[in-house]
Design brief:
- The structure holds two protein chains of two kinds.
- By secondary structure, chain A is α+β, with helices and mostly antiparallel strands.
- Chain A has three helices and seven strands.
- Chain A has a single domain, classed as Chemotaxis protein chec, CATH 3.40.1550.10.
- In chain A, helix 1 crosses helix 3 and helix 2 packs across helix 3.
- Chain B folds into three domains: 115 residues, Rossmann fold, CATH 3.40.50; 122 residues, Response regulator (Rossmann fold), CATH 3.40.50.2300; 114 residues, 2-Layer Sandwich (Transcription Regulator spoIIAA).
- Chain B is 42% helix and 20% strand.
- In chain B, helix 1 crosses helix 5, helix 2 runs parallel beside helix 3 and helix 11 runs parallel beside helix 12.
- The chains are: A alpha+beta, B alpha/beta.
- At the A-B interface, helix 1, helix 2 and helix 3 of A face helix 1, helix 4, strand 5 and helix 7 of B.
Amino acid sequence: MQEGVPRYAHITMPTSAPISKNVAPGATVPPPYAAIEEYTRDAVREVFDKMLGLDMAALPPDGNGSEVGDQIIGSVGFVGTTTGIVHLQCGTTLAQFMTARLLGLEAASVGADMVSDAIGELTNMVAGGVKSRLCDSGWTCVLTIPSITRGSGLRIQTIASVKRKLLPFYADGMRFLVELTVKDTTG
Amino acid sequence: MSIKLLSVDDSRTIRLIIGKAFRAYDCTIAEAANGAEALAAAAADRPDLIILDLTMPVMDGYEALKRLRADPRLKDIPVVMLTAEAGRENVLRIAQLGVQGYVIKPFDEAKIVERVSKLVPLRLKGEAPAGQGEAGVSLLVVDDKPAIVESLKTGLAATGWKVFSAGTAAEALEAGARQAASAILISLSLPGDSAVTLLRALRSQAATKDTPVLGLSVKSAVEEQTRARQLGFNGIVTKPLAMDEVMDRVRRLLKPDTSDRFFRPDGPALVVSIPSELGSKDAIFVRSSLGARAGAAVDAGLSHLIVDLGAVHTADFTHVKLLTEALEVGRNAGLKCSFVGTAEVIAECRNFEETRELHFATSVAEALAQCAA
């Protein structure tokens, strides 16, 4: 290391997740649901832009939860000052397309295992983005391991003490859903 | 010699993406799914660099890095962390581990290639070692008409350039990933909007994002050529192909050009600035660069050529030859020519048959105003 140069001179801090001016580090009060929703939208757009080169448009939340036909759902939770799960839900054809695009392969050459792994990784990155934004704003949390659910006509049901919102995204004629469930601590 | 990378991530998807990112480079990539596997792989075959995930089962990246740094045989291997842990505290923790760089997931491939290339000498597959000259030049021609590809292969045979081809955009992406191209020629008449789609795909890939791309277009398709330039093609070669033109365009794109000290664009004009003392070597250099620079000016949409002798105190036959040549090159390229000179220079130019009739402005600003008029 060159003398006089700080040890961490080659490391720059990330700029994608600005610290909130309203929250002190180490906050114990959970973040408002709207903040998590905003972090989720930002994280989805960042992941799909960088990893897939897709400019995703966030559509207004709607109640049209279930996709028809065969689906795949990637789920990753965050646990800490706030607790919830990010679900990425889409049809298997779209999942196969996204996997092929992610890996630079022809869609026909992408197998089910690859699709599961890729959707799990994309969900993990989205949840990682939400987690980083929460932590940088003082709401510390950790991620759970990703899980994948496959099936037809799947529907995510929640218990009463959980807030749930469906966040549709759209790009290049494709629509997929991010379902955000957060433990409701407002009573 | 090939660079040896070790990619450590529990996600097969990430390992595949890393493999894709470096596919065009002369390197081998070993893989490990956790820290323990990584240490074993590094001990068995010492890599030149390790790309290391942080959160993994069995042994995480922190522990693997700690053990790596404690091993005298492995402690000097550069490590780039690839992690979804983007929070500020995590970044500081990573920094304290003494890694040489980190990339946050999500990441684009260019970013990881850039970080790695700062630490080890990455080279594209098939890239000519320095000093090999034009023997290492390779062109990827993307055209669905075999006759065009054949004419290029035949016409460029004497250059020693390697010409390989693809008939569709998909084939081109595969071919470009298999072997690095020095430049890519894409037919603008590929079906649909394939040429533009292909250009965007090439620009989004780490291995080809900086590769010069020329469009092949029939001479009369002016709108198509204008659109291609606006969308990022580095230039256009018109069909029917003249091999001299193809060679000239490719060479211009590949060779470092030091002629900027004499040539600069200014508004609608290419301005050629002649220094007060013009040595014979510089004079030859300017004259020999005129054709290429005028061609590039036309490609860039410029309409005028201004030769500025404003700094010259005494004009001689060297200047006269240069002015004459500029006039001819400008006319051939379709550029309107203007000249700038002091009263002394103008008077001296009147003494030569070749420059007697030239009209001079007294400054570049005045010449530019005349261009606009």
